[in-house]
Amino acid sequence: MSGKLAIHGGTPVRKTLLPYGHQSINQDDINAVASVLKTDWITQGPLVSEFEQRIATYCHVKYAVALSSGTAALHAAAFAVGLSHGDELITTPITFVADGNCAFYQGGTVRLADVHPDTVNIDPSCIGKALTSKTKALLPVDFAGHPCDLDDIKEIAADHSVPVIEDAAHALGAEYKGKKVGGLADISILSFHPVKAITTGEGGMVLTNNSQYYDRLTLFRTHGITKDATKMHHQNDPWYYEMQHLGYNYRLTDMQCALGISQLKKLDTFIARRRALVSHYNTAFHDNPTLITPTEKKDVRSAYHLYVLQLQLEHLTVDRATIFQALRAENIGINVHYIPLHYQPYYQRTLSYRKGDFPIAERYYDRTITLPLFPQMTDEDADDVIEAVQKVIHAYRRD
Length: 399
Ligand SMILES: *Cc1c(COP(=O)(O)O)cnc(C)c1O
Fold this sequence. Notes:
This protein is an alpha+beta fold and about 400 residues long. The protein folds into 2 domains: about 5-20 and about 265-395, Aspartate Aminotransferase, domain 1; about 25-265, Aspartate Aminotransferase, domain 2 (3-Layer(aba) Sandwich). About 35% of the residues lie in helices and about 15% in strands. The protein has 13 helices and 15 strands. The strands form 5 sheets. Strands 1-9-8-5 form a 4-stranded mixed sheet, with helices on both faces. A 3-stranded parallel sheet has the order 3-2-4, covered by helices on one side. It has a 3-stranded antiparallel sheet with strand order 7-6-13, with no helix packed on it. Helix 2 runs parallel beside helix 8 and helix 3 (about 70-80) crosses helix 4. The longest helix has 19 residues, at about 265-285. The mean pLDDT is about 95. Bound molecules: pyridoxal-5'-phosphate (PLP). Pyridoxal-5'-phosphate (PLP) binds near residues 141 and 193.
């Protein structure tokens, strides 16, 4: 196959870098945001509840609470379930740091459970080891947009009387057993960061069918303050508001919600495009003995936030870092998701975990690369990625 690697001075497959993810913003989105600036509402106004209602309808869930980020949504979810000092949250090592941090924010701590090698989602059979009398919630993540094994996880949660918070930051629009992700766990969270399925710049949402959680979430978003006289503990004057909990300013603005509403109209098209690109990649890589393509279980429909390839290092003469650098040199903006939580210095200082504790997650981490995947990628962009991967793999193949 084609020529000298760019990392060795050859011509790169692409002239300019193709990023691994990118937002898709069109003129409708721009108009929607601009029109808000002419109204009286530029922080929380009518578009916040409209965006919440539209997401709730889309996900078939009763309540939706918009927050300033997915991280704020996780923090709010931890608060809603009552996680506090000394409590433990169980999550996966293969996720973004915010999933563990939300427990620390509340004065609690984190226990990890290893992942399943096929989906890289938390392995329900590993959760038992992490459960203690202090477990306050299970926090599985729909890694790369593939829904976690929710029924098994909910069964474990029910046996231990703890709620399930599903991190669906990757999975807006995904389906589990024929149902949209978002209303299937006790609480689900979304992120609207620019690389996610739809964006509001920064932004997030918490979804639930539980009215008590809903009340706590709305308080938490605004300093723990209520202005609803029927919910106050003390006598109320007309100006009276009451701070009932320690909350934050985690509000999302009307400008952002205008963008979210406009983006949501395109979500299904975005996912269809992601899935078309994924099948293009899968067809190209399926028969390559050095590569493992992503799994999609029969009873789910992934939203494909990420396209994750695993390298069969046994068939290569180099490690993942070299493949990574060689692909970057070809101007393919590959990435790695994620550095295991228990490798992070803060986590190592705070928890007693060490390298070696989660062998499946660690083996996955040594072998994984994330290829570019976003709705506005063209077929030619995808062909460039395929050509670069084949070029690099060919150069380092062990015969
Ligand atoms: C993006 C992301 C978050 C955090 O969302 P932000 O909006 O960036 O704060 C949380 N969990 C996962 C799995 C994510 O990918």
